[in-house]
Amino acid sequence: MNDDMILTVKDLHKTFRLQDGRTLKVLNGITTGIRKGEKIAVIGPSGSGKSTFLRCLNQMEVPTSGVITFKGEDITAPECNINLVRRHMGMVFQHFYLFPHLTVRKNLTLAPVDQKLMTQEEADAKALELLARVGLADKIDEWPDRLSGGQKQRVAIARAMAMSPDMLLFDEPTSALDPEMIGEVLDVMKELADSGMTMYLVTHEMGFAHKIADRVLFIDKGVISEEGTPDEVFDHPKQPRTIEFLSKVLRR
Amino acid sequence: MRNKRYDGAGRGDLLLWIVGAFLLYLLWDSGFFTAAAWSDFNRRFYQNFVKDNRYMMLVDGLKSTIFMTSGATVIGVIVGLILSVIRVAHKGGVHIPVLNKLAETYITVLRGTPAMVQLLIWNFTIFASARDLNTQYIAILAFGLNSGAYVAEIFRGGIESIDAGQMEAARSLGLTYGSSMRHVILPQALRNVVPMLFNEFIALLKETSIAGYIGIDDLTRAGQNIQALTLEHSQPLVMVAIIYLIMVMVLSKLVKKLEQWLSRGRRG
User: Fold this and answer.
1) Average pLDDT of B84-104?
2) Which residues from A are below 8 Å from B170, CB to CB?
3) 3-class SS of residue A77
4) Residue at B28 is within a domain
5) Which of A117, A172, A222, B227 could form a disulfide with A49 if both were Cys (CB 3.0 to 4.6 A apart)?
């Protein structure tokens, strides 16, 4: 792997143990990586393992085997403190998961203040700056349930940014949104991408992926079955599974 | 809003009227509304509650009942919170098998034996030699630890009702499991279980009526003490029952109000 890789993944496997004792192999050996400032879109059919792949990167799911390094450190090693790693690797969820009992301000400041990275005043200033960036500065003292879906997701992105991460993981950030709200969230993500943020994006928004991604991974049956620039993968796919998948999603 | 009350009695009020009418019928049937019976009732009432300020026995008993209930609730909530967090954390992958087993055993034993037996054991076995200790504190401990086992299950339900995504979102920001629990999960869970905690408080209020068995002059025992003085078998206990009923009804009404207020509050 190159030296400028901020994150590398080597032979990642994930097997889930089901309630009835059976096992489900979701990831079957993924080897890849991301450079600083690179944007990688991860696409694939449902159940292909693309979300599990993303969730393994910050150890939301503990991989069955394989090695993940982040900024040179093996974060799959038992002695690695995953909480320290996660400070630098933000995650944005499909269902936002804002903290409903806290105001927007507290949603943004809880993590940096609790981990003693900032004082409340510093965190407040940072929160205001980030909210202005996602166009929601006037909502700083609002409760999450008073926001629309699109606004919630923009706050969730700002919350992830409040930790000043080196990298963001987006897990289908627009899949739970009403169609008219997708645009405002994608605009925020576009601005982040343009600012040089390193991003992994699991998405069904093929047009958006085409526009911002430097590289596209097509994951199928737990492996990367095709990989390349957006032009290569979207316009000239080589694998039959990729062609079939794209014909299904792009026909809409 | 206020004027709505005049549109008619609510369901709870209707029930009260029916109970009231039934009691009146019983009184009438037993010849209560004759002049002789009425003066007899007054005489006995005077004997039971007015003479020598005997109503003060009930007041002191009531104080003791409220004191024990409040103390036991505090202990119950603290113990319940600790037990439930242990059990949830164990299930959530935190490696504490011994603590979890202890918590499980605690809950099984204290829920599986009568509160009365526990109270007697605390007083006559565990604290048998501590004769200087105020018996009320022993009762608070016994009722509190017993209540804790029930409160633990209330809290556990409350914690498990919070979307797993809340914990993930908190952890993804680098918060430790403990911090996520304290700042994200528990505040939401607490909010959900507040009405059930109040119900536990109400249950405790009634349960403390067995405190007389270890010699505490609580409200129930105060009624019995008056009985012993006046050799009067109905009025003191009926009065005690009425006092309990009023307290429980007022508290239940508060819980209803609280539930409405909570459900109107923020969610999302």
Assistant:
1) 92
2) 99, 111
3) coil
4) no
5) A222
CA distance to partner chain A, nearest, from residue B164 (Å): 9
For residue B98, what is the domain's CATH number?
1.10.3720.10
| Rounded distance between C-alpha atoms, residue A78 and residue A41, angstroms | 29
pTM of the full structure: 0.82
- In whole angstroms, give the CA distance from residue B202 to residue B69: 9
Instruction: Indicate yes or no: CB of A111 within 8 angstroms of CB of B168.
Output: no
- Rounded to the nearest angstrom, the minimum Cα separation between B149 and chain A is 27
In angstroms, the separation between the Cα of residue A222 and the nearest Cα of chain B is 23
Considering the domain boundaries, does residue B23 fall inside one? no
Residue B48 covered by a domain: no
What is the ipTM, given to two decimal places?
A: 0.93
pLDDT, tens digit (0-9, with 9 covering 90-100), for A125-167 = 999 999 999 999 999 999 999 999 999 999 999 999 999 999 9
Smallest Cβ distance to B165: which of A58, A93, A163?
A93
Residue with tokens 């605009």: A187
> Is there a domain that residue B13 lies in?
no
Q: In residues, how long is chain A?
A: 252
With an 8 Å Cβ cutoff, are A110 and B183 in contact? yes
What is the C-alpha radius of gyration for chain B, rounded to an integer number of angstroms? 24
Q: What is the mean pLDDT of residues B70-88?
A: 95
Length of chain B: 268
Q: Which residues pair with A14 in a beta bridge?
A: A27
Domain, as residue range, for B214: 54-262
Sign, CA torsion B65/B68/B71/B75? negative
Q: Smallest Cβ distance to B183: which of A83, A114, A163?
A: A114
Bin A247: left if φ > 0, else alpha if -120 < ψ < 50, else beta. Answer: alpha
A117, burial (CB in 10 Å: exposed 0-12, middle 13-18, buried 19+)? middle
Please tell me the total count of domains within chain B: 1
Task: Look at B174 and A60 and tell me if their CB atoms are within 8 Å.
Answer: no
